[in-house]
Amino acid sequence: MRVRWAFEEVGQKYDVRLVSFGEMKEPAYRKLHPFGQIPTYRDGNLVLFESGAIVLHIAEQHAGLLPIEGNARSRAIAWMFAALNTVEPPIVERSMAMMLERNQSWYAERLAGLEERVRVRLRELSECLGDAEWLDGAFSAADLLMVTVLRRFSSSSDLGHPNLAAYVARAEARPAYQRAFADQLAVFTVSQSKA
Amino acid sequence: MRVRWAFEEVGQKYDVRLVSFGEMKEPAYRKLHPFGQIPTYRDGNLVLFESGAIVLHIAEQHAGLLPIEGNARSRAIAWMFAALNTVEPPIVERSMAMMLERNQSWYAERLAGLEERVRVRLRELSECLGDAEWLDGAFSAADLLMVTVLRRFSSSSDLGHPNLAAYVARAEARPAYQRAFADQLAVFTVSQSKA
To answer: Angle at Cα B39 formed by Cα B35 and Cα B44, nearest 5°?
Structure first.
């Protein structure tokens, strides 16, 4: 979804090649992605992995996802790293525990700790965003990544901060987001109907 | 350490301003870093946070930490993201559990799961590195970040793969690393003698 959305924002056509869970762990795929994950990106001889790096590459190749002025550009990249390294990890840890540890004796106690970590990060993010429309000036690749991180919550009311929920809603209202989402949903619908 | 090392690699002088744990959570510091962490970077009017973004910024401003050729440069940036988003998170989770959960009833069972996650990542990284000197061609900001991630283990024998231990040792032998490490150690020694 991150890569689709980035392509849509810059108006660049792309082809999708779906990969099964089994295929991801095969040696042939690991030549593209050493850790056997998705997404990967291919353009001629260039193969990239890591969604953050792919979005940054697209943003560097095409106008529309990074400010042109140098300092603003560097700040947007700092927010890209913050989305993936500071905000996302506790959210992923919480989701993983909810999937993998829910039948363990320690679940309730550990979940409380994980939720507190998430709450702290969301509060800090909410305070920093305030009434601003986007993280730092115009919409950028940083907002694209941050919104995909925040969308890991099943409902935006779970974010606990109306300004963060409104921020996600603003991003979701973008035509590029809507095109990417519709295309992603179409793939999911087809794969469900085959299953 | 990441930022010091990057400055040393490109031969750029820098000043250090130390921040106490208390100061990091103060509103004044949060204007520099929304999540109240270190490091931050300041150059004139530009303020950055997130060590990955700061290292990337330094690498973009000065020669020596990123390949000049476009595809190689993008691949190095992909490895920077991989170090921080794919390899580091399970290592940090394991360290945090070892600090915070060691007196919990679930500790042994949970630690086993965390160690397995780390082992998988290190095996994948070891296979990908093979006999190569660095991750992708010449030493780059990607190696700088990856090595600081791998150095989170107290001993390089804990990495479980001789080629990863040798990779860390090669990086530590670099004069720029040694200057950065000596300077970092000097700060630590002074703060210990004050305590």
So the answer is: 105
